[in-house]
Amino acid sequence: MVNGDGEPTAPLVIAIDGPAGAGKSTVGRALADRLSVGYLDTGAMYRAMTFAALRRGVVEGALDEVAAMAPTVDITIEGDTVIVDGVDATVAIRGREVTEAVSQISANPVVREVLVDRQRAWVSEHGGGVVEGRDIGSVVFPGAQLKLYITASARVRAERRVREIGGDIDQVEASIIKRDRVDSSRDHSPLTEAEGAVVVDTTGVSIDAVVTHILELLR
Ligand code: DC
Q1: For 2, 6, 26, 78, which has the most beta carbons within 10 A of its beta carbon?
Q2: For ligand 1, what atom is nearest to the CA of residue 136?
Q3: Is 79 within a domain?
Q4: Residue 44: inside a domain
């Protein structure tokens, strides 16, 4: 891309981080739509890697086995469809088995290295976009033009999950708190507010209002 003076400009990258269920995906997709740019859900990549590890039976194995597997896993994400090594994993990656194992797989430094490379390649190929995850503003794209940290209370996040996939509210809330703790305390790229990130709390706020607020920030 070039600016009015014919000089190259960096592609627009919007980095969205925050805990599970805070509304990142809904906000990210709506933003990408409004800005006519691509949208990358990096959580789906970690889930795809976990699906592959479960299929190959290496989740319980040594860190090394998962590390050796990571570069060989073929992941294709097109819209909402996720294909892992030629198998449609769209539904399975959202299931209980993958959700329970994903924190362990995403804590593996080699898995992170492999996926961060693929995330950067995706942005280069797409000329920018909205990228959502846990370490996007801090590690993957520290130079993003806009960094957002989207959050909400654990209770509200649990209520949203229950509305989406059902379950007992107290149990869902407890599992959300547990996953937050694992994601925030791991050694490699823990979930944190990136330097310069704008914190957006979606507790009691509609998605439309959040998107409007962020579009104003961009202007
Ligand atoms: O956004 P999600 O719940 O689908 O993410 C699934 C898991 O992947 C979550 O436990 C945290 C992890 N993850 C990560 O470590 N880094 C990212 N950039 C995205 C997700």
Answers
A1: 26
A2: 18
A3: yes
A4: yes
Residues with CB under 6 A from ligand 1: 20, 42-43, 46-47, 102-103, 106, 133-135, 179, 183
Tens of pLDDT along 113-133? 999 999 999 999 999 999 999
How many alpha carbons fall within 13 Å on the CB side of residue 40? 29
Residue 8 within any structural domain of the chain: no
- Residue range of the domain that includes 50: 13-218
- Closest by CA to 19, choosing from 212, 211, 193, is 193
* Structural domain contains residue 6: no
Mutate to test the pocket of ligand 1, among 25, 42, 45, 66 (most ligand atoms within 8 A of CB): 42
pLDDT single digits (tens) 55-79: 999 876 678 999 999 999 999 998 8
What's the gap in Å between 36 CA and the centre of ligand 1?
24
For residue 179, pLDDT over 90 is answered with no
d(CA 132, CA 40): 6
CATH number of the domain residue 79 falls in:
3.40.50.300
| Number of structural domains the chain divides into | 1
CB 151 within 8 A of CB 174: no
